[in-house]
Design goal:
heterodimer, A: about 350 residues, alpha+beta, D-amino Acid Aminotransferase, Chain A, domain 1, 6-stranded antiparallel β-sheet, 5-stranded antiparallel β-sheet, B: alpha+beta, Glucose Oxidase, domain 1, 4-stranded antiparallel β-sheet
């Protein structure tokens, strides 16, 4: 597994490589290198996108067209988006690039070319952590075979030319030459249960608990809000499970026979059964602590439990909502430590 | 001094004191309490709450002395000694045997500022010199105990002993009754001053850290904070440790076969006495342990009938067979103090790491340092005060009861506890007079009907529920003493106000004292005599949890109590034994029937009746 100009294997990359592998890719590499179980994969780096765009620019301009757009001309932006996305999705990759992606895929799926993979866009701009931008990115699940993989890599790239994305860049005045996208290609986890977890309480901001939400099947049902997940709160340090809200999980996302995922009803006798065992909650907490320690700040994590009970992480990013509020300290050290007791004896402040 | 706060604008309130009716037929028993403990009209303007934490059962007349002595001392410390900025002392009233108390808040900002200045000169000196003052406290406490132990057993000989006469003592035996009684009473009042010398300051320092943790970690369980602060070698663990030692010695001396379930303590003692040297050796070990460590009451020590292990060996002896079996199975019964200390240190370190900034960590370090400093007192004082001393006190009164009964004042020495402490003094002076002049005492005619009437009143009072609070609801409860000692907050009051009867509910809520979920058979144990009914794995349901019950924790599957907070010693013991516990449910012994299957969730603080 040799990384190259176009391909970066998870084991070879980290957060510092964000400019070339994007936020998601860098995070997966960082986790891999920290010894946390992540489904294996590689990143099609920004240089690949650049190589592709350069090839397209030879035929007809792209970046100058985007830069000339006016955000108040919605019809113009829409027409441009349709044209550019169609071009990106329809154009063949330069032969050397396609060969490298196929070779990496073959290596990733050593035993069987039809091993399912996930294709996930991985943006390079800092703003990508902003929810408004993150929402514009794409993930394609259960993709089978090299042709499909290359197709969805192009679809990810094409998403840069969505109306929303281009409008956002124009409003921000971002130069197109700096607009890149990396794409993650990663083996799929056949998840029995999957979901998200926060290394603090989303309601109180408490950093001493881990909040875990999960549902049956692939995590897309939870992330996409299609099912009300089971919700647990577990003490980060004590391991005490203080909240168990078991929901009625009516549907699960499972792999479709020809690729992709489909909604499948959850059997009646499973709907109200907890989808995570106490032992698994304990292991999720251990992973959450490890990841948070590694990054030194609270994290927002996507995870899956495979059919044999193994826990794998699919994503970890800094928690943003409460981190802003952390600015005010609960208490400051006092010159005379005894003055602290006045918070009890001094009456209402 | 400030007038008591007059709460205003309460839309919904508790019954006014003036609307409380003395239960018919008990009027004379009610009137026998001192005038200053009866509700009056002015009391309608104030907020009162039923002190069910310390006085959960109707009070017999003598036992009210505990309230008097305790509030006299608590108030003095708050109001005059430490000068707490926002609160003075506690007022108490009694109606239908129930003790209601009310705080005296300071609200004038200028007065608070003036008191704050005084407080810092006084309390901060205590904090700064805590270890030295606490060592001095223990010396004072031991001296006080020694004085109480030295008081003679009251007795009246027919003729003054000849040696007294020849020694020219000049004071006759009847005088020493009054002297001993007054010294007994004086010692009790004095003991409560010792009790409160550090208490509020200790709780306050602990609560400072507690509050910080609750702000930094809003979802942290109370019991986790308690674990961070709890000491490992507090006196309160000693009685149980002594039992384990006695179990080990029984095996070593080869007398362990005499300890079997269901055999009374007296029978065990008698059979050991006949066992020759090994039996005598074990009995000598028992004596070593008993003094002082069996001076623990099976309750909180506030009632005369909370007897100690020394008075009633059935509690410690009920635990011995279990400990002996564990010793023979090769178990190490020693509390793993080093391991517990390491765990505590790790817990503190782990939470510290989660704080956002070094600044917060520095504040955390300062607060926990102070909490650790004060905690030995918070944990340790109860053994000396509520257990050892109250036990000596009530037993001395019991001796007077015995003497009065001997002279026909009442049928049974225990009846003395149906008199107020003023009335006991009157009875003693009656006896002294009669002994001196040769006339029969008046007491044997005077007291028996009164005692009978009071017994009936007590039985009647215990049949009636009493409101949790009286008077208008204050806008805010900002009295650190009330919040600290009783855990009463404005939010609690809303819960009380909105509580229905709830008697048909299958779910009972309390403090989550110790983690774990367990289902089992409920054993509603109302007194120490019933301890023997507990079978392995039963769930103990009792009125008050108390550390002296620790030995039976080896037998039970979980513990549920009416009274107690997550900081109560029993909660700490439950955590040590790894047993689920829910404490402070208020009503578990009323709602749960003996033998019912229940589920205890010690992490959530919920008990569910399954039958």
């Amino acid at each position: 597994m040799q990384s190259s100009d176009f391909i970066g294997w998870f084991a070879d990359i980290g957060l510092a490589d964000r400019p070339t592998v994007g936020g998601k890719g860098g995070s997966l590499g960082e986790l891999t290198r920290a010894g946390i179980a992540v489904p294996p994969g590689f990143v099609v780096k920004t240089s690949a996108f650049e190589r592709f765009v350069q090839a397209l620019e030879q035929e007809a301009p792209i970046r100058s067209v985007v830069e000339a757009l006016h955000t108040d001309d919605l019809a113009g932006v829409t027409a441009c988006s349709q044209a550019l996305r169609a071009r990106v999705e329809a154009s063949a990759l330069p032969a050397d690039l396609e060969a490298e992606i196929s070779a990496a895929l073959a290596e990733l799926c050593a035993e069987d070319a039809n091993v399912p993979v996930a294709i996930r866009s991985s943006a390079t701009t800092e703003d990508a952590e902003d929810a408004s931008f993150a929402g514009l990115q794409d993930t394609f699940l259960w993709v089978l075979g090299p042709a499909e993989v290359v197709k969805y890599v192009r679809t990810c790239w094409a998403s840069l030319y969505s109306t929303e994305s281009m409008t956002y860049r124009r409003k921000q005045g971002l130069p197109e030459a700096g607009v890149h996208m990396a794409v993650v290609v990663q083996r799929m986890v056949d998840a029995r249960t999957a979901g998200v977890m926060f290394t603090r309480s989303p309601t109180t901001g408490d950093r001493s608990v881990v909040t875990i939400e999960g549902a049956w099947g692939l995590g897309s049902s939870v992330v996409g809000g299609e099912v009300t997940p089971d919700r647990f709160v577990i003490g980060k340090i004590t391991g005490e499970i203080s909240v168990r809200d078991i929901s009625d999980k009516h549907v699960q996302h499972l792999p479709a026979p020809g690729g992709g995922v489909e909604d499948v009803p959850v059997p009646d006798d499973q709907r109200k059964v907890p989808c995570i065992s106490d032992e698994e909650l304990g292991r999720l907490r251990d992973v959450a602590r490890k990841v948070e320690r590694h990054y030194g700040r609270p994290q927002d994590i996507e995870w899956a439990i495979d059919r044999s009970g193994g826990i794998l992480l699919l994503q970890s990013r800094p928690e943003t909502v409460w981190s802003v509020k952390d600015a005010a300290p609960v208490a400051k050290p006092a010159e005379n430590p005894l003055l602290h007791v006045m918070s009890i004896f001094g009456g209402r402040r | 001094m400030n007038a008591p706060v007059k709460p205003q604008g309460a839309a919904k309130g508790f019954p006014l004191p003036s609307s409380m009716k003395v239960i018919p037929g008990t009027e004379r028993a009610q009137a026998a309490h001192a005038y200053y403990m009866q509700f009056n009209e002015a009391d309608d303007d104030r907020f009162w709450f039923y002190n069910s934490m310390h006085f959960p059962e109707p009070m017999s007349h003598f036992d009210m002395v505990t309230g008097e002595a305790a509030y006299c001392a608590l108030g003095a410390s708050n109001t005059r000694v430490q000068c707490l900025p926002t609160t003075l002392g506690i007022d108490q009233r009694i109606i239908n045997g129930r003790v209601y108390i009310g705080g005296n808040a300071v609200t004038d900002p200028d007065e608070i500022a003036r008191r704050t200045e005084e407080f810092q000169k006084r309390a901060f000196y205590y904090y700064a010199n805590w270890e030295r003052l606490y060592d001095q406290w223990k010396d004072k406490m031991r001296a006080l105990i020694k004085d109480a132990q030295a008081l003679p057993t009251p007795s009246l000989p027919e003729f003054e002993p000849l040696e007294n006469v020849h020694a020219g003592r000049g004071i006759a035996s009847n005088h020493w009754l009054l002297d001993t009684y007054q010294k007994t009473l004086e010692g009790y009042f004095r003991m409560w001053h010792h009790h409160f010398e550090f208490l509020l300051l200790g709780y306050g320092a602990y609560l400072t850290f507690f509050d910080f943790c609750k702000k930094a970690f809003p979802e942290i369980p109370d019991q986790t904070i308690a674990r961070m602060v709890a000491g490992m070698e507090a006196e309160i663990f000693r009685p149980d440790d002594e039992l384990k030692r006695l179990a080990r010695r029984a095996v070593e001396l080869g007398v362990d076969h005499k300890f079997t379930d269901g055999v009374s303590a007296d029978d065990v003692l008698a059979s050991l006495d006949q066992l020759g040297q090994p039996g005598k050796d074990w009995l000598a070990e028992l004596e070593t342990s008993r003094n002082p460590w069996f001076n623990v009451n099976v309750g909180d020590g506030f009632y005369h009938y909370h007897r100690s292990w020394n008075d009633d060996l059935s509690m410690p002896f009920a635990a011995l067979p279990g400990y002996i079996a564990m010793v023979k199975a090769g178990a190490n019964l020693d509390r793993p103090i080093e391991q517990l200390m390491t765990e505590r240190k790790q817990l503190i370190e782990d939470y510290r790491e989660l704080l956002s900034t070094d600044e917060e960590r520095a504040a955390y370090d300062q607060m926990i340092e102070l909490a650790h400093r004060v905690f030995p007192y918070v944990e340790g004082h109860k053994f000396y005060c509520e257990h050892w001393y109250t036990n000596l006190f009530f037993n001395k009164i019991r001796e007077f009861g015995g003497l009065l009964a001997q002279f026909g004042f009442f049928p049974d020495g225990e009846d003395v506890f149906h008199l107020t402490h003023y009335e006991v003094e009157a009875a003693i002076i009656d006896l002294m007079t009669s002994w001196s002049n040769g006339s029969p005492p008046r007491g044997p005619v005077h007291w028996p009907p009164i005692v009978a009437e009071r017994k009936a009143a007590l039985a009647e009072w215990s049949k009636h529920e009493t409101p949790p609070a009286l008077g208008p609801v204050p806008d805010v409860i900002d009295d650190p003493a009330i919040v600290m000692l009783w855990g009463i907050t404005r939010e609690n009051l809303d819960v009380w106000l909105n509580a229905g009867t709830g008697l048909d509910s299958k779910e009972i809520r309390g403090f989550a004292a110790s983690n774990g979920v367990i289902e089992g058979v409920a054993r509603v144990v109302k007194s120490v005599e019933e301890i023997g009914r507990l079978q392995q794995g039963d769930i103990l349901v009792c009125h008050v949890t108390n550390p002296t019950w620790a030995p039976i924790f080896q037998k039970i599957g979980a513990a549920v109590s009416d009274i107690g907070g997550s900081m109560s010693h029993a909660a700490i013991v439950a955590r040590e034994y790894g047993l689920p516990a829910v404490v402070g449910t208020g009503t578990a012994t009323q709602k749960i029937k003996d033998g019912q299957r229940i589920r205890v969730d010690g992490g959530l603080g919920v008990v569910t009746i399954l039958d």
